[in-house]
Amino acid sequence: MKQVISSLDWIGELGNTAFDAIDNDIILFEKMPRESRTDYPFKIDVTTVIICLKGKMEGVINLKSYKAESPCFTVILPDQILEHNYISEDFSGLFIVMSKKFTDSLMPSAQDRLPLFLSVQDNPAVPLNEDELTAMVAYFQMLQRIVKLQDHSSRLEVVRHLTLAFFYGAAYQFHPQSENKKKSHQELLVEKFLSLVQSHYKQQRGLDFYADKLFLTPKHLSKVMKESTGKSASDWIDDYVILEAKALLKSTNMTVQQISDELNFSEQSFFGKYFKRVVGLSPREYKGK
Hints:
52% of the residues lie in helices and 19% in strands. It is α+β, with helices and mostly antiparallel strands. It has a 6-stranded antiparallel β-sheet with strand order 1-2-9-4-7-10. Strands 3-8-5-6 form a 4-stranded antiparallel β-sheet.
């Protein structure tokens, strides 16, 4: 199978925009490339931190809407699927892009990463007060100074420690918001179902699998999801499968057959019928659109 590629080759996308980088491990820049391909869902293979100084942007990350309005910071994680819906003309920000290899080296233990990453998935955009924004900008500038020191033999290690400190600070910022909000039994059930779908949608498209995991009947699970979200449980499963398929069709070099295999369809024809039923176009028509 051909290797999946990120839709955003950050170095290539930056074009004439000034940036500082250490290989592909960490890239810093201060201007969003306006010509970025954001008119379709794309799968990202890097961690991206955006410190929003002015303006706002809106979009969808893994089917969850988000709104980032200055001053705030936004974190997008590897393997998430991003859709930009709106970026204001006056938008300005500071951008930190980190390779998956680099972020994995910061917190090698999944247990260390999980609380922060779960919070980020729940709420990718966090508002900042004036003091918090000043601290974020200071962190970016410190990081930028180190990255610029090309003759510094240990600059990647220094950057790693600075970034780790930033993540711990970000975790502190995220958690009070998530911990202070008490959730109802129904909200927790919705979260558990969506978490299961995110983990298993490539292998399991049947409602029975998820209902069994949650010790519910398929009928009751669908009723809860419809009442809470406006969409049935089956629709949510379809949405995750189709979102992945769209991202792979538009932002990778994979063939339709390879995508069909990636999503565990027994035949390419079954994948084509499934995709057309939900999207209204065949995979090839969507890819060429």
